[in-house]
Known about the structure:
alpha/beta; TIM Barrel; 2 domains; 12 helices
Amino acid sequence: xxxxxxxxxLTGGVDVLSLTEKYGCPLYVYDAxxxxxxxxxxxxxxxxxxxxxxxxxxxxxxxxxLKYIKSLGAGLDTVSIQEVLVGLKAGFEPQDIIYTPxxxxxxxxxxxxxxxxxxxxxxxxxxxxFGHLFPDYPVCVRINPHILAGGNTKISVGHxxxxxxxxxxxxxxxxxxxxxxxxxxxxxxxHTGSDILDAEVFLQGAEILFDIADHFPELKxxxxxxxxxxxxxxxxIQTDINDLGKKISKRFKNYCKSKGRDLTLMFEPxxxxxxxxxxxxxxxxxxxxxxxxxxxGVDSGLNHLIRPMFYDAYHKIVNIxxxxxxxxxxxxxxxxCETDTFGVNRKMHEVQDGNVxxxxxxxxxCYTMASNYNSRYRPAEVLVIDGKDYLIRxxxxxxxxxxxxxxxxxx
Length: 411
């Protein structure tokens, strides 16, 4: 988002403020050009014979977003049977979908098997049960590399005490189960966490995967997960994807050449592809001065954007109703009957009732984590492509709040 002729605009010159006049507030808006830029940047960073980028759709799972990302050439990374079904409805072929659940029932995994998608198994008991029932169905195994990495403890998933994956020390058990059931292990996977800055973390994990890969002669791919850091501030740090690509590509090609194997290098970015494409637009309800703080209360809350409260996440906030004039310092809060603070001591152009504020980096883990808390409606979503705006999700109504509730008449 940039300022053009005194207005905040998206790619193609779309006036952001006009979108709120057309679709109302609060509103999620996504710029497709930014998604394409991130996808192409990642694709060009890795110099390997066969690269597969599977979009982690838990970050943003609107079906129109999935169809757009599919058009770029990506596959799909899913974590639930429902995401698998949405992916198939979006047009992804089963072989282009990898299903990586955690702590789900065997029944759900069998359902995924019936749909023909790639299955990534992350615990020994399910591996044994699945192998006993379907020895001919190739699977991937998720390894826990015992690497502590990520932006905070809630998004660090590869450490020794994590619920995710099979410890790399338990590889002999994986081999025993696979051999006893005559299973085909076609992939080895790891994911250490999100907001990882250092390429060395991936290289450390790579060495573990390479050692494990030696044990599986039918292997077709190595999946390095994702977790690339994106900038949240104007001067924010981010993963140097070109440096990472250069180092991983070199090591991966050397491994394949030394072993005489033609493997696919896979990644599953979510936040990296969509975070910066998203903007969350809210309207100011009230400007409230207390003894020490000037609060800006907006028509949204943790029900629409929980990341600041849940992860202590930072989102840049600007007043898009004004691009010049006096600046003041505000604390931006929501309308939920709970402490839902979006940002403390934020400097922006002087805010008045009815002004529209924009939250940056609202493309990943924002709408997908929204709820109807306080019986509030979830907002609409809009996708901007080639200078045109398209409604991709309608704003909820009271009908949506009451849907599936069963009202008893016995009182």
